[in-house]
Amino acid sequence: MKQTPFKNQIKNQIRIGVSALALFLAACSEVANNSANEESENVSEVSEAIEAPNFLLAEWQGPYGGIPDFTKAKLSDLKAGLETGMAENLAEIEAIANNPDAPTFENTIVAMEDTGRALSRLFAYYGIWASNNSTPEFREIQREVAPKLSAFNSKITQNDKLFARVKAVYEGEEMKSLRPDQQRLVWLTYDGFASFGATLTGDAKNRYAAINQELAGLHTNFANNVLADEEGYVLYLTEDQLGGLPQSYIDAAAAAAKSRGEEGKFAVTNTRSSMDPFLTFSTERDLREKVWNTYYSRGDNADDKDNNANIAKILKLRDERVKLLGYDNYASWRLQNRMAKTPDRALELMEAVWPAAIARVREEVADMQAVADSENAGIKIAPWDYRFYAEKVRKAKYDLDSNEVKQYLQVDKLIEAMHFVAGELFNFGFTPITDGSVPVFHEDVKVWEVTDKTSGEHIGLWYLDPYARAGKRSGAWARSFRGHETFDGKQTVLSTNNSNFVKGAAGAPTLVSWDDATTFFHEFGHALHALSSNVVYPTLNGGVRDYTEFQSQLLERWLSTDEVINTYLLHVETGEPMPKALVDKIKAAGNFNQGFATTEYLASALVDMRFHTAEDVSNLDADAFEREALAALDMPSELVMRHRSPHFGHIFSGEGYSAGYYGYMWADVLTSDAAEAFREAPGGFYDKDVAKRLVDNLFAVRNAVDPEEAYRAFRGRDAKIEALMRDRGFPVPE
Q: What global pTM score does this model have?
């Protein structure tokens, strides 16, 4: 449920080498609105660009196997770098496709793994401009290059000679003699081509490529519209409008206002990290309503940033494209190689949980309404009241105050806690790099070297960009500048985590909510997944969408372990550990508000699946479709989808989660089941034997092993939904 649209679009896309993965990622996720008729120049037309050196493409210098130098990266080099990098990559691909020798694993599949290195380096910088330090100038470049990137990608995926060689290896006798990870690499490569139009011919092939170009523009236009609304809508409060807000929030809001030139005021920004605590604590109901409407109306304001038309166009083009491949709908195409396999299986899981979730919402609303009535509030619980009265119920039922809990959740201490967990489970050590030897892209970014605690072997670097700012997209995400590989010399990992915590006042610790702390651990799980990799080939660092969230969701569980709570959750003023009485309250309230959390997520996942299984999307009204789909589900009126359609970047700013948002719940079945394996072990969540099985079978192998086989190797059986239902306090189906 954490926003990560840029980091993982490659996971189930075309496996055709480092550069094409990165570029397909860019074309699908960080894209811009431009004409589908803008083709990228062919190799000969840009060959002159190859001669010009470009810093963004250059080999990385410095320590740790070479590192990107963000201080020297210039946006003015981006367009030329892209042209040069695409030309070089296409030349590499053409050399493989036209090799006169018979196709083999080495001269075709492995050769492709070694293509596009320079372009991959460029996209380390591109990703920062797209997600962490976006500017109007960069977004304009996005709009110009998106269709060119899509056309470039199509030149590779629709290269008949190249696909013929891949197919020959896939169907040849050599395949039988390859190692299992090599066989999986061949299959992933072949399947990537076949699933993305390589088998098409003539007009169908040309139309497929044209659709991809048009989608590239629409995806980025969608994403940039949401970002513009997040940047453009800020509510400034005066001192008399701060009722109920914790001092830590007031201080952060004052700092946010000052940074925007509004000193003396208090800024509520249009991001979840700012919106959520405001709705939880503010006693100003009219302002809660305003903040709620502003946040949930992103991309839906009937102006030039409105995304409803973009949604309709995207769905229509996706449907047309998969029908060229012979599929009934987009979801059937998308899920064919995921753990769920079919839309029906994904829906079966969600629909098994949905009735229990909305039943719990009705119980929660009844409790909240009772509190409101006892206070003579004279209201009926509305969506902007849910968090506010849920907090009152939490205090009444469990004597648990979220703001009291927050005093023990300092970002710096949480970082120490995450490093402790990584040391216990993965044997990783983290050493801060403070000598300036690793360039960063913003002063807020910190870097640690990761090593094996026993041998001292260098594993990689971990970059952290924790705070919200203008030009940084909302949410939390992880990505890697470089992944692990050993097939042509060892390459170590450069991994990043990114959050949007509201920075505390100057010199004061930054405090976060329990939910934000959970998300922090979640995204760190993605980083550990990258850092623990032992795969040989770059493509095997990918993953299957409804599986890749499992590792990160599982890591959330260590936040509430006694070892973390007693050592790292220290009071911001006294430095004392969280008292046992408060810990007991937190654990007792573990399933509190689970109706809200599950329903807002499932609503988004179910609407996503219905969008992508609709029989007719030719003239779809996105706003009406969302309303009608939720009405058919009997969606409680007191809350909305976690991501309303006009700002649902997971599924409309790219294709990584499209028809796949259900994957968080699919992964959570695995998570709940795996957590029970730790609970059953003698050493609990720090049991060394279970931890070793976890790392060896579920983290280190990445996508070198089929996910179902990997999970069985860890658990000895398939995961069971009963564990999920127990986790959420829902009735277990018989």
A: 0.83
Please give the Cα distance from 302 to 508 (Å, whole number).
Answer: 41
Tokens of 563: 């070892």
Is residue 507 domain-shared with residue 470, that is, in the same domain?
yes
Same structural domain for residues 201 and 78? yes
Q: Are 133 and 21 in contact (CB under 8 A)?
A: no
Please write the tens of the pLDDT for every residue from 611-652: 999 999 998 999 999 999 999 999 999 999 999 999 999 999
Q: 272: domain range?
A: 233-293
Same domain as 325, residue 312: yes
Residues annotated catalytic, as ranges: 523
In this structure, the strands spanning 266-268 and 446-452 are: unpaired
| 201 and 276 fall within a common domain | no
Q: Give the Cβ contact number of residue 219 at 10 Å.
A: 29
Give me the CATH number covering residue 422. 3.40.390.10
Domain count, the chain: 4
pLDDT confidence of 348, banded at 50, 70, 90? very high
Compute the average pLDDT of residues 34-56. 47
Same domain, 13 and 92: yes
Taking CA 706 as the corner, what is the angle to CA 26 and CA 18, rounded to the nearest 5 degrees? 30
Distance between CA atoms of residues 563 and 146, nearest Å: 48
> For 500-535, how does the pLDDT look when each residue is reduced to its tens digit (9 = 90+)?
998 888 889 999 999 999 999 999 999 999 999 999
User: Which of 46, 190, 24 minimizes the C-alpha distance to 123?
Assistant: 24
